[in-house]
Amino acid sequence: MFVAAKDMHYTTADGRQVLDGTAGLWCCNAGHCRPLITEAIQKQAAELDYAPAFQMGHPVAFELANRIIDIAPKGMEHVFYTNSGSESVETALKIAIAYHRARGEGSRTRLIGRERGYHGVNFGGISVGGIVNNRKFFGSLLAGVDHLPHTHIPQNAFAKGQPEHGANLADDLERIVALHGADTIAAVIVEPMAGSTGVLLPPKGYLEKLRAITKKHGILLIFDEVITGFGRLGSAFAAQHFDVLPDMMTTAKGLTNGVIPMGAVITTGAVHDAFMNGPEHMIELFHGYTYSGNPIAAAAGIATLDTYKEEGLFERAAELAPYWQEALHSLKGTRNVIDIRNMGLIGAVELEPIAGEPTKRAFSAFLKAYEKGILIRTTGDIIAMSPPLIISKAEIDRLIGTLKEVLDTLE
Ligand code: PXG
């Protein structure tokens, strides 16, 4: 149980300090309880607490949208607010289908996701997502969804940064196009780097191929940047890190440093403009939330972007990435470690599962790590880490050093 947090540390109910190796749930990129954000929320709550998101507006939401576009890849021009990553995904999928219809291609309704993808927990997201337990309990899901194969292949074990093998996995999209016809497919959605299912990296050339094939067939490409957005890979967005421009990006988490629920779908001008051809009094897109662009969330967003900028945190993540990489890979050879993966300030250490008891070894590591004062995250038998971008080299040493001690004592 956590009762307080400051910068790189949580305080537990029994008064211990725990080093945050996960930025909460991949979201507190600037660390905890940062003053600019706290003050902005307090001030905004006292000034304009709420303004309707339908028909009405308020300047803070527009200011934040402009600030997001300032740091987004060139070509990204518009922002649609949501309240979470899951809502961003639903919104982007709906925009994709409605976009084609608005342009007279209403037959384009199919959505393509990827195995081991995570796109939140609403119906669209679990349908395009590729996690069996998030899908199998919930009926027939969305119709008209296909999946690309995931990109996690054994040849890439212990690769540092972006792996060499597997760009050809993107070619599977051609198979799906041949099966259904391009004119039935609205969009492909992928995480540029899959976080939740254990840090699965895109092989060199893979995203470029996906972009080329989607473009060739008039299919929209959506990058789910809920984890990779806001500095995690050392650029504002993964789209910049990989230099591949999608048609839409879904974001949340780091947008407000995790402090207040808020998400945003960022689109190109072309996607936005397709909806802007009706009469002035008509609604362009029948979609939106009560809390879209909530003033307090928007104020938190601006203060978060200010903090990232003033402290140069995206650049800092890029600068620290090589140190982080070497620290992580120093765990190679540690008992039960069968793979290590990294990119930006993200890392994964995969453990050999205990025979017949999958997930148990990593979960024991999680518990022991917590006892020893570090917070890590596990998914299956994979340990995932994504510290706040304010982490110091000494704290990286402590995080990885403590993890090594934990792994050495595990069964
Ligand atoms: N897309 C991606 C890529 C995500 O990582 C979502 C969408 C959904 O966001 P919301 O805000 O609706 O949770 C996510 C969320 C984990 C973990 O343990 C990861 C997420 C959420 C909870 C746990 O890795 N990612």
Main attributes of the structure:
seven-stranded mixed beta sheet, globular, single chain, alpha/beta, 411 residues, binds 3-[O-phosphonopyridoxyl]--amino-benzoic acid
Write the layout of secondary structure elements.
Blueprint: E1 2-6, E2 9-12, E3 17-20, H1 23-26, H2 35-47, H3 59-71, E4 76-82, H4 85-102, E5 110-114, H5 123-128, H6 132-135, E6 145-148, H7 172-180, E7 185-190, H8 206-216, E8 220-224, H9 238-242, E9 248-251, E10 263-268, H10 269-273, H11 295-310, H12 313-329, E11 337-343, E12 346-351, H13 360-371, E13 374-375, E14 377-379, E15 382-385, H14 393-409
Parallel strand pairs: 3-13, 5-6, 5-7, 7-8, 8-9
Antiparallel strand pairs: 1-2, 2-3, 4-10, 9-10, 11-12, 12-15, 14-15
Helix pairs in contact: 2-11, 3-11, 12-14
The protein binds 3-[O-phosphonopyridoxyl]--amino-benzoic acid.
